[in-house]
Amino acid sequence: MAPRKPKSTADDDASSTASELPPILKPKNEKAKVTKPKAEKAKTDKLKSDKPKAVKKEASEKKEVKSETGGKKADGDGKAGEKGKDGKEKVKAVTGDEAVEVMKRYLKEQNRPYSATEVSANLHGKVTKTVADKLLKEMEQSGVIMGKATKKDGGGQWVFWSLQDAADNLSPEQLSQMDEQITTMKATLPTLKSNQRTLTTKLSTLLSAPTTAALHTLISSLREENKAKAEKLRGLKEGEVKMVTRDEVSKVEKEVKEWAGKRKKRMDAFLSLENVLMQGPWTKSELWEKAGLEEDCYVPVPK
User: Fold this and answer.
1) Does residue 209 surpass a pLDDT of 70?
2) What is the model's pTM?
């Protein structure tokens, strides 16, 4: 083996100095990793994930309770007990064979074509539009009812109507009998209309007449009026009221005529004097104001 090279003194001094000096700490640029918040975050995430499950469970339980109560109401009287916003009871929708019977009976009663939308609307939602469209097409394919599309290729809107039973056709004798009934009814129609007008007039008269309560009130008021007039007549008969003789009446009338004539003469004289004075610088209002005159309140005496 080759002999080692001896260390220099300078290297020995540097190494000793480095060993004696304390180590210099360099700042760390990386942030310290915190493990605890991660654990807390995981816990919060777990709580959040568990909470919706509980809410969903409670919502499902409420839904089941609500459906059970709704079922009890519907089973109680055979109809849905809930009411809509307009206050009307909701119609319980039917499906299956019951819906088929309902629509079949309706088409037979109406005896005219309807679309699935019209059938559902006329039944007031007892059969939904989707169910009506599906079942009506199945009924048409099975021959229970008749149906036809508005377009030849089977597209467009479908209309359905009830089968026409041959047994419903009438014989010629029955048709002639119905014609006779129609003729008889047309002949009696004018008489019935006349009777209807007469009865309407009588009804209007009766309605305009006072009621029993109004008659009682009217009778009471007439009795009070009759009593007051009878009391007045009694006073006249017994001499409680002083009677005026014909001579006194004629004397008063004579005085009225006399003073009316004097008033007319004085009025003529006044008007003549007023016309003369108004030729001066005064107006009628100024003249009356200076003379202290007032409007004439004379009321003519009827003849």
Assistant:
1) yes
2) 0.31
